[in-house]
Write a structure and sequence with these properties.
Layout lengths: L1 H12 L5 H8 L6 H22 L6 H19 L4 H15 L13 H4 L5 H18 L2 H11 L5 H16 L4 H19 L4 H17 L8 H12 L6 H26 L18 H4 L4 H19 L1 H4 L3 H4 L1 H10 L12 H19 L2 H8 L6 H18 L2 H13 L7 H11 L11 H7 L10 H23 L1
Helix pairs in contact: 1-2, 1-10, 2-24, 3-4, 4-5, 4-19, 5-19, 7-12, 7-18, 8-9, 8-10, 9-10, 9-11, 9-13, 10-11, 10-24, 11-13, 11-24, 12-19, 12-22, 12-23, 13-25, 15-18, 19-22, 21-22, 21-23, 21-25, 22-23, 23-25
């Protein structure tokens, strides 16, 4: 019964990475249309009234419109009066029709740049990563890889926990953290059922999977949506920051935070067991996938992984753009039939739309003059590192109560204008990392929600490890990035 409930929840997740998906996994609530519409109208009117009283008198009209779009987007993302991806469509539509003039027929002369974020190189990078993830899932390469690695860590509880967390973290660097969590749970749940919910190592395993899946996303550009948003902001600011440039600080930061989480969990959940054995249970797959779950297809997936990631990491040598390299898995998997038409719906289109909306919001803030206005009038802090650290804390906390993609869409463009130009790179990458440290609540991330939905954990179990990581990670991230990229 537990396995059936978990399977149903996993189906609802697909590969999405949003707080909306997390809420659905914990409790399915269908709001009446009238309530949604009422909230939407109230939020829009509230934003209009707020800006009517508090809009700076010397703010250019275009910048004022951008400020309205920013505040409205933040309010809608926090309240979830509409689905998070729909907010991105609202941002794009308002930027095209009302950024420069309130007259709906006077659209911006260069309106295409607000729409073209959907075809941004960042979107193609994410799309390539999603195709790799789907190919790995269909052929069960992800499961074979995880089982192989975990077995190398032995049966001693602490070492096995570390093996589970490292495996989860590495997979999450290249595969959706939601899909990774779902797959790891199918390995852990038979073990959890054997020892029961009162056994400390069971809680440690489940919390370890959730934390490693979230923190592992820091490692690569395709590891989480906030990373892609940060890369898009850097590219729009003229920085040539590559896939490898991200991995150089990203992988050590992710692995170190995962090991820190492991250390915390081993202290909080001490077990008397001396040896553990994870029983591998064969997972049922759709009939149409079973035909493609062959050794030959897994070899193709492995080679495609190696070629794609290798080309991503060496783009500065062969000069092939990272976005173009993303076509490799898209073309190969569809050409050989590993991914067919019915699997295209597994791509988390809502996440891609969220990222596109975040990039459009960044363009609107800069092009309207709103960014320049705030730069000129905000008080200059003597220590930019303090500002970066402060905004990193805000980003980490905000990601606990709203979609980390939405939090990144709002805070990364704002953070970039709070520091001198020479600190923009440090600020933007720090906030990208900080958005993947939300571990405090069951609804903070889809991995948290998935492990909570197994009913082996209480809400209080997330509190202490979540608070420690939320407090420590901004300091550690700034320190690591200062060492690697400043």
């Amino acid at each position: 019964m537990l396995k059936t409930r978990l399977a149903n929840r996993i189906k609802n997740f697909s590969f999405a990475d949003s707080r909306l998906a997390a809420n659905r996994a914990i409790k399915s609530v269908q709001w009446p249309v009238t309530r949604n519409l009422t909230m939407l109208v109230v939020i829009i009117l509230s934003c209009i009234v707020f800006l009517n009283f508090f809009m700076p008198a010397d703010l250019d009209p275009s910048a004022g419109h951008a400020l309205f779009i920013l505040i409205l987007a933040a309010a809608l993302w926090i309240s979830e009066a509409v689905p998070p991806f729909a907010v991105s469509f609202i941002i794009i539509g308002l930027s095209v029709f009302f950024l420069e003039s309130l007259a709906p027929m006077e659209i911006s002369d260069d309106w295409e740049k607000y729409v073209n974020t959907w075809s941004s190189p960042v979107i193609w990078i994410l799309l390539g990563g999603f195709m790799l993830a789907i190919g790995a899932q269909i052929t069960k390469f992800d499961r074979k890889f995880s089982s192989f690695v975990i077995k190398r860590f032995g049966t001693e509880p602490k070492r096995l926990l570390l093996g589970v967390m490292i495996t989860t973290g590495v997979l999450s660097m290249f595969i959706s953290n939601t899909a990774t969590t779902a797959m790891m749970l199918t390995i852990i749940l038979p073990f959890a059922k054997q020892y029961g919910k009162e056994e400390p190592i069971v809680k440690a395993m489940l919390l370890g999977i959730a934390s490693a899946a979230t923190l592992g996303g820091i490692g690569t550009v395709i590891g989480s949506s906030p990373n892609a948003i940060a890369l898009g902001i850097l590219q729009s600011a003229g920085y040539d920051f590559t896939f490898t440039d991200w991995m150089i600080p990203g992988v050590p930061t992710a692995i170190t935070l995962i090991i820190l989480s492991w250390f915390i969990l081993t202290r909080l959940y001490k077990t008397n067991l001396k040896h553990l054995e994870l029983v591998e249970v064969e997972e049922s797959t759709p009939r149409e996938w079973a035909k493609r779950n062959t050794t030959e297809n897994r070899i193709i997936v492995v080679l495609t992984f190696l070629i794609t990631i290798g080309l991503w990491m060496t783009s500065t040598i062969h000069q092939i753009p990272v976005a173009v390299v993303s076509l490799v898995p898209i073309v190969i998997f569809t050409a050989v039939g590993i991914i067919q038409a019915e699997e295209i719906k597994l791509i988390p289109w809502d996440t891609l739309i969220l990222v596109a909306g975040g990039l459009t919001l960044g363009i609107a803030i800069n092009d309207s003059g709103l960014a320049a206005y705030f730069v000129e009038r905000l008080p200059a802090f003597e220590n930019p590192l303090f500002v970066i650290l402060l905004v990193a804390f805000v980003t980490s906390l905000a990601s606990n109560v709203m979609s980390n993609t939405a939090a990144a869409s709002i805070l990364i463009p704002l953070g970039a204008i709070l520091v001198p130009p020479e600190y923009i790179l440090l600020m933007v990458v720090t906030l990208g990392f900080a958005a993947s440290t939300a571990l405090l609540l069951p609804i903070s991330t889809p991995p948290n929600a998935l492990v909570f939905s197994t009913h082996y954990l209480r809400q209080a179990d997330f509190r202490i490890p979540g608070l420690i990581i939320t407090f420590i990670s901004p300091f550690f991230i700034v320190l690591m990035l200062w060492f690697f990229i400043h």
